[in-house]
């Protein structure tokens, strides 16, 4: 037995433990900034071509281009909040009138079409009649659990909203830093990938960036176009709170649910209020908006990333389920890197001569 082996093994083990402790402590320290850092890197990678275009417009001045991109990112936060606040404050009287109409509607008999609904119609009509026959105290007792649940949900999400605003501002600051020093950061990541896995590592980094841009083009841009088209239809048909509902449809489209739930409710509303002509028109437009992403999204994703479309879709859906909204980008990136490494590993010995058993 080699007498020098035990000290070398002990030293190597201690070095690995110290390195693991250093990495773990570093991750623990930057843990509050990890989500913002991931989002900022995703935004910077996805919008880097836009930054270069802006820089060319400003005569090669990076500072002005960074300022423009930062202002645009801030507007993405400010504009939806502005539309939500103005929509609510501008319709206070209508909301109050609706609340009074709701009380009157509860006391009336359910319409015939409610009972004609399949599966749930009879049960819904029976509950409606019981609620209408009840007194104010009974209605309050019946609605109290739902009101308590809604109140608790609202209070919990108000705190989350404040944290979300802080995370967004932090993401914007980090993205501005990455815009200003993007080339340096890219060289550092490529150097690290080369050191870790050689040329395959660099290729994987390039494919990761392509996957981020492909998802940004295919998912986000499609969601923007889809929600705008659907919002225009709601506004033309006279649906109230059209700007707010447009923002809701954008969120649903990013989450891969689509604008269908909002559009279905809007079509029913227009049929009941404006008649068959407007309702049918909105229905046709809603079908077009719902089917819109099935054509545009694959084209944009394929344009942004030269990867199998099924791989990107699996990464988007699986990442969304596993990690939330940020998983829309993490999922395709992880699958793209794994797919690339697997293909490279399988093709390593393709050109090498294989030993075959001698035939008879």
Write a structural description.
- This protein has helices at residues 5-57, 62-90, 92-107, 112-115, 121-133, 136-180, 182-197, 199-237, 242-254, 260-274, 276-304, 309-323, 327-346.
- By secondary structure, the chain is mainly α.
- It has a domain at 197-346.
- Helix 1 (5-57) crosses helix 6, helix 2 (62-90) packs antiparallel against helix 6 and helix 10 (260-274) packs antiparallel against helix 11.
- The radius of gyration is 28 Å and the shape is elongated.
- The protein starts with a helix and ends in a 14-residue tail after the last helix.
What brief labels describe this structure?
360 residues, mainly alpha, 85% helix, elongated, disordered C terminus
How much of the residues is beta strand, in percent? Answer: under 5%
Low-confidence stretches: 356-360
What is the mean predicted local confidence, pLDDT? 75
| Class of secondary structure makeup | mainly alpha
User: End-to-end span in angstroms?
Assistant: 48 Å
How many β-strand stretches? 0
Largest β-sheet summary: none
- Looking at the structure, what is the overall shape? elongated
Q: How many helical stretches?
A: 13
In N-to-C order, the SSE pattern is HHHHHHHHHHHHH
Estimated radius of gyration: 28 Å
Q: Helical content, roughly?
A: over 70%
């Amino acid at each position: 037995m080699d007498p020098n082996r035990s000290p070398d093994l002990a030293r190597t083990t201690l070095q690995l433990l110290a390195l693991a402790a250093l990495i773990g402590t570093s991750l623990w320290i930057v843990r509050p900034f990890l989500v913002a850092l991931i989002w900022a890197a995703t935004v910077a990678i996805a919008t880097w071509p836009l930054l270069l275009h802006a820089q060319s417009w400003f005569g090669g001045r990076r500072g002005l281009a960074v300022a423009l991109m930062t202002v645009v990112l801030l507007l993405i936060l400010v504009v939806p909040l502005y539309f939500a606040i103005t929509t609510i404050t501008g319709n206070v009287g209508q909301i109050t009138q609706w609340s009074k109409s709701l009380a009157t509607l509860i006391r009336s008999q359910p319409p015939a079409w409610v009972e004609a609904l399949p599966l749930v119609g009879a049960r819904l009509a029976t509950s409606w009649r019981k609620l209408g026959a009840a007194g104010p105290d009974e209605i309050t007792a019946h609605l109290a659990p739902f009101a308590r649940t809604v109140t608790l949900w609202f209070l919990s999400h108000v705190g989350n909203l404040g944290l979300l605003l802080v995370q967004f501002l932090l993401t914007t600051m980090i993205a501005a830093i990455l815009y200003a020093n993007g080339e340096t950061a890219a060289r550092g990541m490529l150097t690290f990938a080369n050191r870790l896995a050689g040329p395959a590592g660099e290729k994987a980094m390039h494919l990761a960036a392509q996957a981020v841009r492909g998802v940004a083009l295919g998912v986000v841009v499609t969601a923007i176009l889809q929600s705008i088209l659907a919002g225009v239809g709601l506004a033309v048909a006279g649906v109230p709170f059209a700007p707010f509902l447009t923002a809701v449809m954008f969120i649903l489209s990013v989450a891969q649910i689509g604008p269908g739930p909002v559009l279905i409710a809007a079509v029913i509303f227009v049929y009941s209020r404006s008649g068959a002509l407007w309702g049918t028109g909105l229905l046709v437009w809603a079908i077009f908006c719902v089917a819109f992403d099935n054509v545009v999204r694959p084209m944009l994703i394929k344009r942004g990333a030269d990867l199998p479309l099924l791989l990107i879709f699996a990464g988007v859906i699986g990442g969304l389920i596993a990690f939330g909204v940020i998983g829309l980008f993490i999922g395709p990136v992880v699958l793209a890197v794994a797919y690339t490494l697997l293909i490279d590993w399988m093709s390593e010995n393709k050109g090498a001569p294989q030993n075959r058993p001698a035939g008879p």
